Amino acid sequence: MDKPDPLCYPSWAMGNPSRGKSRTPGWFGPYGGRFVPETLIEPLRELEAAYAAARRDAGFRAALDEELRTYVGRPTPLTFAGRLSDATGLRVWLKREDLTHTGAHKINNTVGQVLLARRMGKKRVIAETGAGQHGVATAAAAARFGLPCAVYMGVEDMARQAPNVGRMKFLGAEVVPVTSGSRTLKDATSEALRAWSASSRDTFYVLGSALGPHPYPSMVRDFQSVIGREARAQILKAAGRLPREVVACVGGGSNSIGIFTAFLKDRAVRLTGVEAGGEGVRSGKHAARFSGGKPGVLHGTLTYLLQDDDGQVLPTHSISAGLDYPAVGPEHAELRRTGRARYVSATDDEALRAAREIGRLEGILPALESAHAVAYILREKRRIGRGALVIVNLSGRGDKDLATLLR
Ligand SMILES: *Cc1c(COP(=O)(O)O)cnc(C)c1O
To answer: pLDDT for 377-392, tens place per residue?
Structure first.
């Protein structure tokens, strides 16, 4: 029999290969790993090796940088929010991922993964999507590199997010309706993983957040970490010092890990992730995995998960589709365990109010996801401290949410 793959099992089941440290690839302390059926082990190993080689290849890095600059629109600005600063007594800077092509940070990752797919000689790409932002960003990158694209989407989400279905189709992607389970992102992800295991020889699976089996959480973090690298250099140039706090909303955790990573070693910089509090954590209608969840396995990774006492995944609720997912990226679970980052939540109502504030004060229509991060600074301004320098990651623009905002 083959040696068991240390990535497939939790560290305690394996005689603790990481000895409690985060050094085993694919593990973030006790979280992460590769909990998948056997048919996916080989494709994941192939992906891991190809990504490791691409990372070392100066040609790949140069091609990615060029795409980020000339197609995605990087670097994105760091904008001083003067009136929001006056209103809160803070000094607030906004990292403007809403200004990227397709309107959210998702494109940083899809351009990276589709470039990798092409380098691996894959003939087509597939993806999952909930709100449709990742589907649109994947469809755009696939079109640009001439690869056919199929996006799995729950029929519930297809109805709720019809404009994004139209965008994906316009960009040449096939949208595959998913009718199983709750017919939302969780089911679309299961279906995409199934489809990948049946077609991995010629198909690349573009996963949309810092989630899933190794190497996805690390690879997606790397592709998104450009956000934090830029923001750190920009704040040093503009303000001459590091911020007191960096704030980002947390769905699967990719925009937040993308901005946190550059500041991890700056111990004085507080890192705060904001989850979807929905109708309040006590109502049970939310997606606050760190308040209401406990460790478990979903879609190939061991992490904080909303589940019942039998380990059944619980339904989630958020006004923002992009935060409406029952699990959180495993690296966040570890950042929380070590105390390096803190996780709080903001409710639907707080996010709506924050979106309105930032519209009126700064002339920016934010995604409802991003509005959760703004809601936190509005609520906690006194505790953050008068005059404190704060960076808020504005993960996306809110055109897609306009109907909800006007209601
Ligand atoms: C998808 C999305 C999110 C949530 O995903 P993360 O992986 O947690 O970043 C947040 N904001 C916007 C605008 C999104 O499209």
So the answer is: 999 999 999 999 999 9
CB 395 less than 6 A from any atom of ligand 1: yes
CA distance 330 to 17: 17
pTM beyond cutoff 0.85: yes
Which residue from 254, 289, 399 has its CB within 8 A of the most atoms of ligand 1, so it is best to mutate?
Answer: 254
Return mean pLDDT, the chain: 94
From ligand 1's centre to the CA of 97, what distance in Å? Answer: 10
pLDDT of 24 = 80
pLDDT of residue 258: 99
* Active site (annotated) includes residue 128: yes
Give yes or no for residue 250 CB within 6 A of ligand 1.
Answer: yes
Strands 149-154 and 174-178: parallel
Cα dihedral 404, 292, 343, 27, rounded to 10, equals -110
Is 123 part of the annotated catalytic residue set?
no
Active site residue 106: yes
Non-local (6+) Cβ contacts of 308 within 8 A are 314
